[in-house]
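User: We ran a pulldown and think these components assemble together. Before we commit to crystallization trials, I'd like a predicted model of the whole complex to look at. Sequences follow.
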Amino acid sequence: MTIDVQTWVKVAAFTGGGLAMGLGAIGAAVGEGHTAAQANIAISRTPDMSGDIFKSMLVGQAVAESASIFALVIAMILLFTDYASSYIEISVVLSAGICMGLGAIGSGIGSGYPAGAACVGIARQPAMSGRLMTNMLIGSAVCQTPAIFSLVTSFIILFTDFSGRPINPTWAAIVGAGLASGFGGIGSGLGGGLVAETSCDGIARQPETVTPVTNVMLLGQAVTQTTAIYGLLVSFILMFKTFEATSALAPAAALLSAGICMGIGAIGPGIGEGFTARSAVDGIARNMNATAELTRIMLVGQAVAESTGIYSLVIALILIFVV
Amino acid sequence: METIKQTQKKYGSRAMSLAIIVAMGLIVLGEKAAGKGLILGTLFSVVNFILIGATLPRTVGHKKRAAILISFVSLLLRYALLAIPIVLAIKLDQINIFTVIIGIFMIQLMILVDHLPLPLGQKRASS
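Assistant: Here's a predicted model for the assembly, 450 residues in total across the polymer chains.
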């Protein structure tokens, strides 16, 4: 049996679509399940507040599942669009699907954390329900950033015309771009969620600390997103740089490795920076007078945690430009 | 504090109203497909939001693993519904896919607009 190029493109598109939605659903489901579990705890403490807690859960889940709706959009485009019959399209459709699926995992789980903490917080401090809701939504919205990066990368991969470029090593650059952005978003999404969760928790415990807690949460979350930005940067270089045609496998392996290196290398720092910011936010909620010192220590800690992400970026750039 | 139904009604009606106004503007400007796409996407976004509210009580009252499983099944069913306007937009030239996608996020947009404009230091009066 011989399989033509068009069939291979279809196989890759179906696989990419399946991976986009399958991986994308993981994050949202875990995040929503976590929120529901926390709502259980909250309702068991204060059954009278169940209406408010359900409302917080509803709004939190609606925002939290945005990442997986991005994945749904990409999956549908992959499943129902006709693509050109060329070998490069195989890597295009596969990479777009993997990128979006992976990129939605961290954001989905991360957004569930503040939603759950807001439910528990409302049970503990009903008077702060409005402020908790706002803080939860800000935190959840920032958690969506890595998924938005993956969506943008997937769209660029799908709608850029790669037909004029050599198949080898462009196929590897395209797949590498998807992996860099997709894997790169996991840590940042999770890390951002950890910070937002503690922020909601802190506001519920000490309502008077709302301003410094929210501000430091945003600062901490912004730093956790930097490794996702590295992933996006490497993706953009891989997508927009034109590579010379070659029959050798090594240049393609270097480009693919660059994407894998940056993507996987960004997971740890994103989560680690989330831990650092989480403890700082928790400390500020307990002792508002130590805000300046805790913020300084948080930034130093995050900078150190960031270093392994920078090493990955350097190696990825060497693989792209030097090797 | 408003109930879940009131919350759904508030964001649902705001989303549909905004979509209809913008869609009418697009249709007047000759972008008929874009206008149709926006309304279609928003309509399914509102239905999805109502279904989230309907499935919430089912997720509460179970252990974490069961809650995650119920969330996952509910998610898949609701996404099968959300896939309908996207597939229609891909298959039919009369519906613009990009405005369908914007419409699908109209509820989330309304929620964020409702909460985010306040300055960070300002305390929101609890409703």
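Confidence is low (pLDDT under 50) at residues 123-127 of chain B. That may be worth checking against your pulldown data before setting up trials.

User: Thanks, that helps.
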